[in-house]
Prior knowledge:
Layout: E1 3-9, H1 16-29, E2 34-38, E3 52-53, H2 60-67, H3 71-84, H4 86-94, E4 100-104, H5 110-113, H6 117-127, E5 130-139, H7 146-163, E6 167-172, H8 179-183, H9 186-189, H10 193-203, H11 209-221, E7 227-229, H12 235-248
Parallel strand pairs: 1-4, 1-5, 2-3, 2-4, 5-6, 6-7
Bound molecules: guanosine-5'-triphosphate and magnesium ion.
Amino acid sequence: MGRYCQLVMGPAGSGKSTYCQTIMQHCEAAKRRVHLVNLDPAAERFEYPPSVDIRELITLEDVMEELGYGPNGGLIYCFEFLMDNLDWFEEQLGDYDDDYLILDCPGQIELYTHIPIMRQIARLLQQWNFQVVGVYCLESQFIEDTAKYFAGVMSATSAMSMLEIPHINVMTKMDLVSEDAKDNMGRYFDPDPLLLADDANRSTSEKFRELNMAIANLIDEFSMVSFLPLNIKDEDSVAYVLSHADNAIQWGEDQEPKEPPPDQDEGDDYE
Ligand SMILES: Nc1nc2c(ncn2[C@@H]2O[C@H](COP(=O)(O)OP(=O)(O)OP(=O)(O)O)[C@@H](O)[C@H]2O)c(=O)[nH]1
Ligand SMILES: [Mg+2]
């Protein structure tokens, strides 16, 4: 066995915590041992209680109350505090030596794109022998508007290049998308630059045409920017996304072969 984890990221409200809970539930049903790690110092409640919780070290509420910070500055303070208390973090994760962890991160995307905090966390996890996959959540509502979609894809790209770890992008909240709209969504999962630029040109003025094409090409060149649709109400969809995350960190390849049940006669199966 080894140490494996998913670093679940994405903009505010994109469905990160719901993704984590869904994966926990799915793994529990499959008798797979997975632990939740909460890295959001402002999180309120969890259906599955986290095994490791940054709020035991520091909470955003305390920082705002006692130090007078606003929510964004306060969040950065919390992560700087975590970085100053890495012994605590390492010790907490140390209890889960042979398990698979799901790390639920906060939704302030500057943590992934502007400042190097998530990158430092990803490096640390790797130093502590974790195989880490970044799971970037973007909600399907982004697709309603090509400009929003561009913004979402650029934030995913930025996180991907900043973190330099195996990475998957997940299109969340697919249960909210109508059947009609779903038929039209394939192009957004695996984007074709010409179609994207066409869409964007329809909603922007003439002078943005070149820019639209340039962005669409950029999205195409980073062919890693494709999305796995996730419908949390469909077990197959959850299993599909999880299998991609597992593959990215080669989970499952070095699992111990299962022992035969104790009451089974040895050799019966090998005739
Ligand atoms: N229908 C539906 N609602 C969802 C889904 N995922 C999340 N939501 C809803 O979207 C809202 C935000 O979901 P969260 O999972 O808390 O999102 P988050 O990314 O963790 O949010 P922050 O931690 O605040 O950044 C909640 O009201 C969820 O119930 C989904 O797959 N389907
Ligand atoms: Mg959350």
